[in-house]
Amino acid sequence: MGLKETFGIRQSEVIGLDIGSSAVKLVRLRKNGGGYAVTAAGISSIAPAGDDVSRKRLNTVRAIHECLAVTGVRNKLAVCGVGGPEVAVRDFRFPALPPEEVAGAVSLEAAQVCPFNMEDGAVDYELMSNNGGAVAGILVAATHSLVKRKVQIVKESSLDCVLMDAEGMALLNCFSELEKPEPGQTIAILNIGSSYTTLAIMGGPPNLAGWPFMRDLTFAGDDIVKLIAAEHGMSPDAVKEILFSDSDQPQTTLHDSLEKACKKLIVDVFETSRYYKAQEKSAAFEKLFVCGGFALVKGFVELLSSQLPVKAVLWNPFEKMRCEVGRNHQGVFQRNILQKNSPAMVVACGLAMRSI
């Protein structure tokens, strides 16, 4: 698979397939006049497999099959995403360069900023401006092993991965399409999953408005759960059952523990926002849009608002869309999935938009 096929954007009718470490999310969209309509939505947990890599892959394939069965989707073309420590998204700015030297300059830049050996990675880039001869744009890099793992899982699920996107870019793409931020306005999206957290920021001064800034943080939902479990002498599964309960139990039984366990995440978000502000000479973002599987924990978003100097809100992109899933029992089930899990399905939604 070539680099442009790996990270490029194609116009094709596909499904957005977000293959996480603990769940698979699937979304299919249809352009609806000036907006979007949801025509299929599914989510399926990946059964734990410990350190057994083969079992993990098999369980992931089963979860994808479950999503396809729930949604009734027959389309075989999927857009997938990559994220975490094996992915880097960075902006670059070079002095005037001949066109034939840009690719080499980007590769050298990637080798300096990426946290992995670029001999083992794929790089793609997009030029965003050419001001006075200067060259500027965004590069995306990922390890070959990560891309191959995702492509192989999709293949074993009888699907074709036609495009691989960076998950942080999918978040920002989804936000830009639905929320229409004003030029120069700085917004931030925090997507907290099981194994890593993505902080995506877009905005800055008018001359840089729309430039994305992304960082994948290694501290995430599973780390929070483990800290709480250790404090109370409980199993991680028991803690998850309480945290994701529909009752108010997390806000009472585990509230103090949740606050302590989230301290590192809050510090990471705060320090990253300070770095962005200094680098881009931008005003701090006014609102933090929170999504991802862990965002569904009761009291979590409110905790972020109380601990960060910014208002945090739970982000549900499907509120801005029509729901056009079937009216049969299967359709009712999918609507229930959206109602309960929408913030966890934002990446899949952004991936699905790549085909529109």
What is the topology?
Blueprint: H1 3-7, E1 15-19, E2 23-32, E3 35-45, H2 53-71, E4 77-82, E5 87-94, H3 99-113, E6 121-129, E7 135-143, H4 144-156, E8 160-166, H5 167-179, E9 187-192, E10 197-203, E11 211-217, H6 221-232, H7 236-243, H8 249-252, H9 255-261, H10 263-280, E12 287-291, H11 300-307, E13 311-314, E14 322-323, H12 329-341, H13 346-353
Parallel strand pairs: 1-4, 3-14, 4-8, 9-12, 12-13
Antiparallel strand pairs: 1-2, 2-3, 5-7, 6-7, 9-10, 10-11
Helix pairs in contact: 5-13, 6-7, 6-9
Could you explain the architecture of this structure?
The protein has 356 residues and is an alpha/beta fold. The protein has one domain (3-353): Nucleotidyltransferase, domain 5. Helix content is 40%, strand content 27%. It contains 13 helices and 14 strands. The protein has helices spanning 3-7, 53-71, 99-113, 144-156, 167-179, 221-232, 236-243, 249-252, 255-261, 263-280, 300-307, 329-341, 346-353; strands spanning 15-19, 23-32, 35-45, 77-82, 87-94, 121-129, 135-143, 160-166, 187-192, 197-203, 211-217, 287-291, 311-314, 322-323. The strands form three sheets. It has a six-stranded mixed sheet, sandwiched between helices. A five-stranded mixed sheet has the order 11-10-9-12-13, with helices on both faces. It has a three-stranded antiparallel sheet with strand order 5-7-6. The chain is globular and about 60 Å long. The relative contact order is 0.17. Mean pLDDT is 86; it is low at 1-12.
